[in-house]
Design a protein that fits this description.
Layout: H1 3-17, H2 21-46, E1 53-57, H3 65-69, E2 76-81, H4 84-93, H5 95-99, E3 103-107, E4 120-126, H6 135-145, E5 146-157, H7 159-163, H8 177-186, E6 190-202, E7 208-219
Parallel strand pairs: 1-2, 1-4, 2-3, 4-5
Antiparallel strand pairs: 5-7, 6-7
């Protein structure tokens, strides 16, 4: 691989983990389009009900928020991002929801979740697990802020598929179904189900590919 190609792949990997500047906006739009199928399956797995307080980790530009809030009445949404740009984009894309006090967006450091124990009914995250700095400690944080009997859903692409993408060699920690199951159990979660799905998407490098992904659902 040429040095120039390697640098471009490293740059893309950095933007995927934490979008920044004008290029970050383009990458975020591309992520929304390529991940919307996985996002919808993850939302569906949670079976959101009336009055639920929902947390999403790494929401990106959050163009999917209406699909979460439309699941049931009187739901409220909190979003956490490590990217200041994505927090800003999410707020701009969801003015009505924020002004109506149904949604709010916050920055955090990607390690400590800035909420009290037993706060949320439902928690979700899509395609962020590869970037967790300390997975065992972070999933315990998720467990901590989830209410007893609350549900956590995580969408992630299959390890073998991800290994076929050139940019995942730079800063990605890849997951098989078994590795995700073991991680959830470390925190004390009861894994209810890990469902498998396949879809055709446009990859981050522009090619059409068939992606195998999973949605894991766990209960506290």
């Amino acid at each position: 691989m040429m040095k120039q190609d390697k640098e471009l792949l490293k740059k893309l990997a950095t933007q995927l983990s934490c979008p920044q500047n004008e290029e970050g906006i383009e990458v975020a739009n591309m992520m929304h389009d390529s991940n919307i199928g996985m996002t919808r399956k993850t939302i569906a797995a949670l079976e959101i009900t009336a009055g639920d307080l929902i947390l999403e980790l790494g929401h990106g530009n959050c163009k999917h928020l209406s699909e979460i809030l439309s699941q049931a009445e009187n739901t409220s949404y909190y979003g956490l991002e490590i990217s200041e740009l994505m927090k800003k984009q999410a707020a701009e894309n969801n003015v009505a929801a924020t002004q109506g006090n149904r949604a709010s967006f916050h920055l955090y450091n990607g390690n400590k979740i800035p909420f009290s124990d037993n706060t949320f009914d439902k928690i979700l995250t899509v395609n962020t697990i590869y970037f967790w700095e300390n997975p065992e400690a972070f999933i315990q944080e998720i467990y901590r802020v989830l209410k007893p009997k609350g549900h956590f859903a995580i969408g992630f692409a299959d390890k073998d598929f991800m290994e076929s993408l050139p940019f995942t060699a730079y800063g990605f920690d890849l997951y098989s179904k078994e590795k995700a199951y073991s991680l959830a159990e470390v925190a004390g979660f009861k894994v209810i189900d890990i469902s498998s799905f396949t879809e055709k998407i446009r990859s981050k490098t522009g090619d059409e590919v068939e992606r195998l992904f999973y949605v894991a659902l766990a209960e506290k």
